[in-house]
Design a protein that fits this description.
Elements (H helix, E strand, L loop, with lengths): L13 H8 L9 E5 L2 E5 L10 H12 L5
Antiparallel strand pairs: 1-2
């Protein structure tokens, strides 16, 4: 999960994005996408962040609250 894109020119075809986001490790191999000098090994988002709500709250606090609570 990224807070912002560092390289907005990277735009894979729709089928690659769909294939990468559905690459559950028990069923599919991760998808390797090469773009310029970078290589991205992409797997199902549920592997690392199955429920990203806590991460979203922490990121919102960091962005919008400049003082400790």
């Amino acid at each position: 999960m990224f807070a912002k894109l560092s390289n907005t020119s990277f735009c894979p075809p729709l089928w690659e994005a769909a294939r990468a986001t559905s690459a559950a490790p028990l069923y599919f191999k991760p998808l390797n996408i090469v773009y310029k000098q970078y290589s991205y090994l992409l797997a199902d988002g549920g592997v690392g962040i199955n429920n990203p709500s806590l991460l979203g709250v922490l990121m919102a606090k960091k962005c919008f609250l400049r003082k400790k609570l």
